[in-house]
């Protein structure tokens, strides 16, 4: 879909269809039809897990009470903001347009059951009724176990074949006797290839130095090609040397420890390599904070530790092959691996499905509306049209580390949306939701993808050894889905990611680009965590950003990233002063909880009016919020890793959101926003 638009950053057809939906919704909620092209109002609910969902629940209650919510045209959500945003959209679609959560105490008899349900499901991952911490552990072990049953036999087969296929001896393989059969194995030849590439690198390095005295050698294009070629050569040289050295290191340990007498010493030594890696990894993780996972000494220690850990595991694999421990059962293991790879669904076996179902049960509770389970489980996005709810945009990140477009590969992805009308991204193009993935795009899966924070190959896990280990253990919430560029035209029912291909793509970071038949999606916060990117792309006249992300040092990192990205991508300039939001004094209270600003665009005099809301303590809040803060000083910026809210924690965040929302529109009328 590439039709030109008055808005240069989005196809005209998409904007037209969205604006038509907005007009229908405005008529349904009985507000002025206006002109959505010029007066659209957008609300962005940020990521932050259940902290964001609960804070924004209170904010939505306040906006409903003061009459502002019905004027919201776009609801753009990320991760935790998507929990409550999707819940609102689902209830308004299935509940005759009635606001489900209540806005004052007198509503609790009528709508308090929904609020009570959400409060009772603050620990949504382990909600009870048979689903407890053991269920969570079982789900993790199931995903890890099946992935290992599929991948480990393939690694052992590689080691077995590489060790057993014999060519002719390599004379310079290190630390082995002249007659050792390993000198003839593929391992020795892989090592030799690494030496050859390293020799080529050194030769080219010398040639480059000599040519630097000539005009030809000083040519910029020549230098660029040389740098690229030398970098690749060195990378593959090191890789082949490390892989090829596996038998040499193993047999050196074998000889050094006289393992025929002391087999356990050899096994302890191999384990010691991994233990050393774990220690180095923990040293790299010590003191880690969001945003500095891959910087400086910490990055080096983390990568070194995980590399040693992985190398130790491969030494164990070689040990099993060398002692013929695997041959009696390797073929049966390979058969099981193939069966599982063919029939198991990569998305359903991982933690994604467990996470998705728990979110669905907590935030799309069919029981409360006396609906069948399928109305939650199979709530299709295409059926969310013509609703009382704002037009929801669920933001995810398409992983593009392997893209040839430098902007996407450096960022690690592009913003991929799910909505009632269209799904897709600039990198993959957009497709009508009713035509995507067999017309089965559903709300529960989309909101879970938008909140898939734990995943390999993200900004926080871009370390190659860490991504390798996470993928091997299937520690991932992300989702493989059909590329909108490549719809399944034949055998649609069998069009799902092939386990071997896409798992190995994740293991080694290859194939993560916009050209593959399937693409990998993860948490929208891995691209932009405030949810405002798409609202600025659409140039909404009014934009409210509710930032409930953890920011205990008040760096405003997510806001800074948004400002940078929209300036680069859209030429938009955000003008905003956040000083009044910063907490002061011993009680750590802020002057205000929101500030106003505006956004300028490069090709028009029109501006977007901006309100930026932050989770912070201010004067005039109920005493129980201050009491909770005194007991829990990190409130309201407690770690997103805490997804197990009890009643006091839930109420502290919800009530904070409610009172900040009341301050946002004190006149309890729409005019309060425009003032």
Describe it for me?
This protein has helices spanning 12-29, 36-39, 49-65, 80-94, 108-120, 133-164, 186-211, 220-244, 246-256, 263-285, 296-322, 327-343, 346-349, 351-363, 374-377, 406-411, 443-450, 464-472, 499-508, 533-537, 557-570, 623-631, 647-664, 671-674, and strands spanning 41-45, 74-78, 391-399, 413-419, 422-425, 429-432, 479-482, 518-523, 542-547, 573-575, 594-600, 607-614. With 675 residues, it is of the alpha/beta class. β5 (422-425) and β6 form a beta hairpin. α4 (80-94) runs antiparallel to α17 (443-450) and α10 runs antiparallel to α11 (296-322). The longest helix has 32 residues, at 133-164. It starts with 11 loop residues before the first helix and ends with a helix. The model is unreliable at 268-275, 280-285 and 667-675 (pLDDT under 50).
What share of residues are in beta strands?
5-15%
Main beta-sheet strand count, sense and barrel state: 12 strands, mixed
Structural class by secondary-structure content: alpha/beta
What is the terminal-to-terminal distance?
39 Å
Key terms for this structure?
675 residues; disordered C terminus; alpha/beta; 24 helices
Describe the structure concisely for a colleague.
This protein is of the alpha/beta class. The protein has helices at about 10-30, 35-40, 50-65, 80-95, 110-120, 135-165, 185-210, 220-245, 245-255, 265-285, 295-320, 325-345, 345-350, 350-365, 375, 405-410, 445-450, 465-470, 500-510, 535, 555-570, 625-630, 645-665, 670-675, and strands spanning about 40-45, 75-80, 390-400, 415-420, 420-425, 430, 480, 520-525, 540-545, 575, 595-600, 605-615. Mean pLDDT is about 85; it is low at about 270-275, about 280-285 and about 665-675.
